[in-house]
């Protein structure tokens, strides 16, 4: 097992132009807003404007990383998504003209539900272990969409997280141990002919908890740390209450007392951003990491646990330690700005955006100019997506 120091050198996130307040949704659906605030732990959700998609938010997340670190020795770009824009072309290729990606990098799109970003991170680690002079840009970008008026609707959201993975990382050193659990289960999926996901909500919650426990068991069997060693647990957060549920389940399955205050202490700081952004599928776990790093007291040298779950399903439990001086490399102010500057969305416009269909006739279709973010989908013409930067 390799021991060279490698991990996350830089991390940046972006979200969409709009946010829908869960109070608006609760009023229209005729439910108690506390079902959302307390029951699932969500306050708002990011919603894509008519001229946004996963490419525009991926570009916005990755641009600051390239500005700070340059492109030298970025030999691989891995973009994970389950809300991609093309069945063949990797979404990362649209980023070349938008943010100046190098032509001397392989660019690939990864898919396995919400687990795809973790696949990207682990594949990056493998490439860097082979050649530590190389750097890998990993981008996780998703727009989560369920049917209107369905139980999944309040758990929509959108965000992209970009991570520069390298040797001698400035933020987080990945530890070599990793626990895995894969199983064929129909808890959440999206056939090619649908824009909104299919989900069996209760099955998915149970599958997530079982997969967490199994991945943890595999992690321990392979020599990983004890549960009591971690300063915080970053879970995939389809809704923030899920992290609390899964952690309680994990503790109880291992014979630990699930004290609510102790659970809160190791989860709370990972949930601030997800509470207001909503589910960002592949990006959600890494948004949790950004939230933890930006909001917790000094974490230098502390071990963190990561629990990645992608329906269908693949789960991974892995760990990392926080590097000395990491705070100088965070983007706390930019992260807060990305969230605070979202425009409030009214319910009627939300429904209109939700039900809008992509044109499929091959004619020129200009996209309504809505987003105030740095990149936009300007048109679809000849079945091609045309992006522009500001
Ligand atoms: N005040 C406080 N709490 C309230 C309340 C009120 N007025 N009303 C209800 N609640 C509580 C309920 O008691 C319940 O709490 P517990 O879970 O602790 O029992 C909680 O709010 C949710 O209520 P319901 O179970 O009645 O909610 P629901 O059935 O309408 O929907 C859901 C819940 C099934 C998770 C639904 O949101 C859903 O289908 N979401 C999409 C699927 C999903 O996110 N699955 C997660 C695991 S899969 C995964 O992680 C991959 C992925 O990203 C999709």
TrEMBL record:
* PANTHER family xref list: 3-HYDROXY-3-METHYLGLUTARYL COENZYME A SYNTHASE, HYDROXYMETHYLGLUTARYL-COA SYNTHASE
Residues in the active site? 82 (proton donor/acceptor), 114 (acyl-thioester intermediate), 236 (proton donor/acceptor)
Instruction: Report what the protein is called.
Output: Hydroxymethylglutaryl-CoA synthase
Where do the Hydroxymethylglutaryl-coenzyme A synthase C-terminal domain residues begin and end?
Answer: 267-327
EC assignment: the record states 2.3.3.10
InterPro entries, per database record: HMG_CoA_synt_C_dom, HMG_CoA_synth_N, HMG_CoA_synthase_prok, Thiolase-like
Q: Which residues form the Hydroxymethylglutaryl-coenzyme A synthase N-terminal domain?
A: 7-168
Q: Where does (3S)-3-hydroxy-3-methylglutaryl-CoA bind?
A: 32, 146, 245, 279
Name the Pfam families for this protein: HMG_CoA_synt_C, HMG_CoA_synt_N
Its source organism is Nocardia arthritidis
GO biological processes? acetyl-CoA metabolic process
Q: Which GO terms describe its molecular function?
A: hydroxymethylglutaryl-CoA synthase activity
Q: Which UniProt keywords apply?
A: Acyltransferase, Transferase
Point out the signal peptide segment: none
What family does the database annotate? Belongs to the thiolase-like superfamily. HMG-CoA synthase family.
């Amino acid at each position: 097992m390799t021991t060279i120091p490698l991990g996350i050198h830089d991390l940046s996130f972006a979200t969409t132009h709009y946010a829908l307040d869960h109070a608006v949704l609760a009023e229209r659906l005729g439910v108690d807003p506390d079902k959302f605030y307390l029951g699932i732990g969500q306050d708002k959700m990011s919603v894509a404007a008519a001229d946004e998609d996963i490419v525009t938010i991926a570009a916005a997340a990755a641009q600051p990383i390239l500005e700070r670190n340059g492109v030298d020795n970025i030999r691989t770009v891995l973009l994970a998504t389950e809300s991609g824009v093309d069945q063949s072309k990797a979404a990362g290729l649209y980023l070349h003209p938008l943010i100046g990606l190098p032509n001397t990098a392989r660019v690939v799109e990864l898919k396995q539900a919400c687990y795809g970003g973790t696949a990207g991170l682990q594949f990056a680690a493998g490439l860097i272990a082979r050649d530590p002079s190389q750097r890998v840009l990993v981008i996780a970008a998703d727009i989560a969409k369920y049917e209107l008026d369905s139980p999944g609707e309040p758990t929509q959201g959108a965000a992209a997280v970009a991570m520069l993975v390298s040797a001698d990382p400035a933020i987080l050193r990945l530890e070599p141990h990793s626990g895995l659990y894969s199983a064929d289960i129909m808890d959440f999926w999206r056939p090619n002919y649908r824009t909104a996901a299919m989900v069996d909500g209760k099955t998915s919650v149970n599958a997530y908890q079982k997969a967490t426990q199994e991945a943890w068991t595999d992690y321990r069997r392979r020599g990983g740390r004890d549960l009591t060693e971690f300063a915080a647990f970053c879970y995939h957060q389809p809704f923030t209450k899920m992290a609390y549920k899964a952690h309680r389940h994990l503790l109880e399955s291992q014979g630990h007392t699930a004290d609510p205050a102790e659970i809160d202490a190791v989860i709370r700081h990972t949930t601030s951003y997800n509470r207001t952004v909503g589910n960002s599928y592949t990006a959600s776990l890494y948004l949790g990491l950004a939230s933890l790093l930006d909001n917790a007291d000094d974490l230098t040298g502390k071990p963190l646990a990561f629990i990645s779950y992608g329906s269908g399903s693949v789960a991974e439990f892995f760990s990392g330690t926080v590097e000395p001086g990491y705070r100088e490399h965070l983007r706390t102010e930019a992260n807060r700005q990305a969230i605070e500057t979202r425009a409030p969305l009214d319910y009627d416009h939300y429904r209109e955006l939700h039900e809008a269909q992509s044109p499929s006739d091959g004619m020129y279709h200009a996209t309504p100019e809505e987003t105030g973010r740095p990149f936009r989908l300007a048109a679809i013409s000849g079945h091609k997506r045309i992006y522009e930067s500001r």
